[in-house]
Every structure is written in structure tokens, then in C-alpha cells.
Specification:
Length: 185
């Protein structure tokens, strides 16, 4: 009975996040972090940052990848199914309802203004946790230039994040090889 309760707890945590977050996966990250690191203590900040890096690096929506990782970490394969269902189901239900009702409200100026008002709030929801996540990731005054250069490169030069990730992997491996050479001397 206790195991079933834990599965449903996973489902409900991610269902709540999926139901009350606007703006997609990146807007969910601070809520997921708050639930799984701060409240439930299923992961620590370091594990969360590592999991986030993996979730961003593999194909698929980041919120789903994150839910799968947390569910698997907490309760194995079945846990990942419950957490994935929790994060997906609210969006599925909402999109289904919107598809059914959208034709009736498509040209409504009030609905259009509501969505225009939500956009800045979503940007703030994504931007606000960056400070906390940057501290957990080890960003400080000495290496702050790295995320700034990456963000500007993606934004201004329109370079795909895939190339940034591949370059970071190659630089990390090169640095590791260099350190190994130094240790042998």
C-alpha cells in the first residue's frame, strides 16, 4: 500500500506542475526544482543540475525528460511512468479542450489580451531561478563570461545549441586530457 502511495505522490507532484505552469518546459524547471529538491528532497541541488544537463542534452521535451529522470530515480521504471503521465496529462487535457473550444474564441480580443499578458510573466518565471541555478552550477565572477557568451552566441549569431553542447563536450574532454598529461609529468 505504501508503494502505491509513493507512485501516486510522484504522479500528483508532476500533475500539479504540469497543470499550473504556462510557457512550456523551461517555465516548469523552477517548479520542478522547488518540489523535488526543496520540498520533497528527492534530489539535491547538484543532482538536479546534472539531471537538468542530461535532460537538455537528449531529444524530447525538457519537462518530460526531467520527470522521467526524477521518477526513475525515485521509484524505478514504474516511477518514471507515473511522473511522465503526471507531467503530460494536464497539457493533453488542456490542449484537447482548447482544440474543441478554440474556434469559438479565436478572434476574441479579451482572450488575445490575456495571452499577451501571460507572455512577460512566463519570461520572468524562466529568468527568476537562473540565479539560484547558476550558484548550484558553480557559476561565479571568474566564469560568468561562459554562460553570457553562450547565451549571446545562441541569440545573436543564431548558432544552434546542439553545436554549443558538442563544443562544450569537446572542450571538456580536451581539458580532461590536458589535466591527465600534467599529472603524468
Amino acid at each position: 500500500m505504501q508503494i502505491i502511495k509513493q507512485y501516486w505522490e510522484l504522479f500528483l507532484v508532476f500533475f500539479k506542475i504540469g497543470a499550473f505552469t504556462f510557457g512550456g518546459g523551461y517555465a516548469m524547471i523552477p517548479l520542478i526544482r522547488n518540489e523535488v529538491v526543496k520540498k520533497k528532497e528527492w534530489l539535491n541541488d547538484s543532482e538536479f543540475i546534472d539531471m537538468l544537463a542530461i535532460a537538455q542534452s537528449i531529444p524530447g521535451p525538457i519537462a518530460l525528460n526531467t520527470a522521467l529522470f526524477v521518477g526513475n530515480r525515485r521509484m524505478g521504471f514504474k516511477g518514471s511512468l507515473f511522473s511522465a503521465a503526471g507531467i503530460i496529462l494536464p497539457s493533453f487535457i488542456i490542449i484537447l479542450l482548447i482544440a474543441i473550444l478554440f474556434a469559438q474564441f479565436r478572434d476574441n480580443p479579451l482572450v488575445e489580451r490575456i495571452f499577451k499578458g501571460i507572455r512577460p510573466a512566463v519570461v520572468a518565471l524562466i529568468a527568476a531561478p537562473l540565479l539560484g541555478l547558476s550558484r548550484s552550477a558553480g557559476v561565479n565572477r571568474k566564469n560568468l563570461w561562459i554562460p553570457l557568451v553562450v547565451a549571446l552566441t545562441v541569440w545573436l549569431l543564431k548558432i544552434s545549441p546542439i553545436f554549443i553542447i558538442l563544443a562544450a563536450i569537446l572542450l571538456g574532454l580536451s581539458h580532461l586530457a590536458y589535466l591527465k598529461i600534467l599529472m603524468k609529468k
